[in-house]
Amino acid sequence: MDGVDASVAELRLIGDTVELLPVGHIELPYPTELRTALLDVLPPGETSAAQVCRLDTAVGQAFAAAAAHAYATIADGRADLVASLGQTVYHWVERDRALGTLQLGQPAWIAEATGLPVVSDLRARDIAAGGHGAPLAGVLDRLWLRDSTETTAALNIGGIANITVVAPDAPALAFDTGPGNALLDAAARMISGGVWHQDVDGDLAAQGTVVPELLDVLLADPFYALAPPKSTGKEHFHAGHLTAALDEVGHVAGDDLLATLVELTAVTVADACRAHGVTRVVASGGGVRNPTLMAALRGRLAPATLDTSDALGLPSAAKEAYLTALLGFLTWAGSPADTTGTTGARGPRLLGAITPGSVPLRLPVPATTQVTRVRVRANVTEKVGETSARA
Known about the structure:
Elements: E1 3-14, E2 17-29, H1 32-41, H2 49-72, E3 82-83, E4 87-94, E5 97-104, H3 107-114, E6 118-120, H4 124-128, H5 137-144, E7 152-157, E8 160-166, E9 173-179, H6 182-192, H7 203-207, H8 212-219, H9 239-249, H10 254-275, E10 280-284, H11 291-301, E11 305-308, H12 319-333, E12 353-355, E13 373-376, E14 387-390
Parallel strand pairs: 2-13, 3-6, 7-10, 10-11
Antiparallel strand pairs: 1-2, 1-14, 4-5, 6-12, 7-8, 8-9
Helix pairs in contact: 1-2, 2-3, 6-10, 8-9, 8-10, 10-11
């Protein structure tokens, strides 16, 4: 909930392969009042239909401003569609089943600001098909890493951490591992009385010492023992979760609390990777900008190697935005996104809903082959007779 990530990508469907060219990306912060209001409605906070309506509008307007900015600057006024993953405020999970999910950011504001069609609400159909609606990163990762000769985990460290395990001779598997930055950010707000929203660069955590008793209490949470597919969110890993754990162990100094939470993320990610024989980890998301967390991960993952997606051509700060572009493109091209084995859906599905832009909606001829590969390109040569789009 730091802000809006916007990327521009050129995508082409050539046979069964999507070629993706990252054009550029930008991160625009939320207005302070909007960010505060979003944090206030997260569990265990309470809200109302009126507040949800106001936030859906305000987030939609923030997304619209970001999309219009990226359209005018990065895309140079040339784009075919916008894809929006939305701002998650509630992910409804009971034990091992996802029952619903709510993302805010009314797409009509984006369509109005850009004149482009908008693909949005990308998670709901997956849940209706028996999946978790998350992590959708598995759609990109299984196609992007399928030619790897070793068992590789694509790790995304957002508020929640998730991995996609891609092995040479096995189906892909994707699931949430537990908190990424969620509890770290909650702790930063807790110990600063709301002044800090995060421990910048992990500086305070680096000065602390892991408290084994607190780590053991946190690791006893039943979520970690669930078999994938599984998903979670800030409705589970929030400040109340942290307070309950601290009640069991007593006072913990602020720097030690943050050090312990860094270790919690590192341990739960490493345990999940080890359980599936991972030998290489490719990380992305906001967590890679925390050197203290990356050092802890590197130590816990060894002898598996840890790198970032930048090394493979996808900017780690914008990988989720490029994922969103891919999801929108697949729907636009009429190619179902395959989340089987990752989210737990019953089969590939066309995800999302399309809001028309300023002209009547005109979709390309639907794809007739299932996409099996994503190739990230440094440059793309124009070809005739291919489904293409700039998103």
